[in-house]
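Q: What would this complex look like in 3D?
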Amino acid sequence: MSFRKPSVLPGFGLTFGFTTFFLSVMVLLPLAALVLAAASMHWSEFLRVVSSPRALGSFRLSFGASALAASINAVFGFILAWTLVRYEFPGRKLVDALIDMPFALPTAVSGIALTTVFARHGWIGRYLEPLGIEVAYTWLGVTLALTLISMPFAVRSLQPALLEVQRELEEAAETLGAGRFYTFRRIILPTVLPSLLTGFTLCFARAVGEYGSVIFISGNLPMKTEITPLLIVIHLEQFDYRGAAALGVVMLLLSFVVLFTLNLLQAWGRRRQLRAAH
Amino acid sequence: MAAARPDRVRPGHNTWSGALVRWLFIGVSLSFLAALLLAPLATVFAMALARGVEACLASFADPDTAAAIRLTLTTAAVVVPANTLFGLAAAWAIAKFEFRGKSVLITLIDLPLAISPVISGMVFVLLFGLHGWFGLWLRAHNISIIFALPGILLATMFVTFPYVARELIPLMQQLGNDEEEAAITLGAGGWMTFLRVTLPKIRWGLLYGVILCNARAMGEFGAVSVVSGHIRGLTNTMPLDIEILYNEYNFVGAFAVASLLTLLAALTLVVKSLVERTGYRGR
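A: Here is my prediction, written as structure tokens for the whole assembly.
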């Protein structure tokens, strides 16, 4: 088999050449520089950087808060997607459009706005303070910022899946006497599970790398509220390029694992769809 | 047949508990969005106008803020056309032809979306920074990339690289090749076919991709923060200006700039809604 199928359309050489050239120069070469910079370190030096207490503390916060934010979004994203797909209410279209706001809003804006709302005297923070809940400048604030910026991924993954749920099956279950929760667990959840996991993974991936919105609300205390991307920036500001590259490679590896997981999830979802169709 | 079925058995409809569940879901959804999204959005404008309209407008007259706005516009003016050109070329190659390794190419184009913005900036520091691969050579030839405009352009281009391509590839795949093949067979040239046949079909998707790319280019914080050096009046973009003003407790100034970017985000969503109304639903 040749490299490409013949076609009467012109322009393959030009567009393919430009695409691969621009991609290589803009994306692949710079990423190769990162991998090479980390590869030029000795193993022991690499391990020393990525296993220092400060780095471990930042991994704990970054991965923990991201997993928590993705879980919150799995729950509320499902509720939002369900509400938008199943119910008619005034302003539904507007709410649907607003879901994408965190995609379009610069992260620095989300950061200062969330901090202001949840600070001690802020619109919401003032009601939480008497309850002893401090959001701004704690890990709770980090989680909140990560929840906001990754929220659209959960909703947008679940919406098409919920449209696919066969209403006939639900109705049959209900007619046969199944309770609402039983129907949810046995019919709705299995159908949307691949999309739910895809949404979770996308949220997690977006949250782990997030920088702009978090640094305003986190307080940035080493070991406590310092996320990994911030630690990379601190290494860079001290001209410790190798330390920054080591942490960067750890995060890059995680990105690849996430991409791989997503591909597996999508393949799984497609297989299930095929089986359901037969 | 559906009409003959008694409505009572439809789940979630016309039963007492169904109505309860429905309002519970709508209530939880709206409260979640109100606390997490609407309150921060309203805060941006409330804080910007806290000392009146004049104080808000006066913050744009500040020379550093004005310079930041100019730099952001310059960045977008370079980055958006470059990524649009790339997006069109990539979409033509991927959607119009069948070749080996296509899915790998698509994954690689999407790669910047999976990477932390901080890493997107850092790769250019590793290449062109003072202690980077080409650092000494660049200094010997008196060229500055990091802590200067070229670094900001490169970092922004990296981050917004996939946006136009991602909108166009699924759209052009969905539209198929038939009309282009007919035009070519009837003797139209390649450019003519693209301009007269393809472009009119994809213009709404293209518009949305360009607008989204523009919003991200103007709003990028992490990657630009790493390469910019934060020199006031010189290498501060609007998002970086927001950070400086905010850290100096100049809240009116910070939120005034933030409100401009928020309006841009709102405009992006309006364009998206309009594009979707034309029948094409992107991602």
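A: To summarize the key features: Chain A touches chain B through 92 residues (CB under 8 Å). The mean pLDDT of chain A is 91.
Q: Very helpful, thank you.
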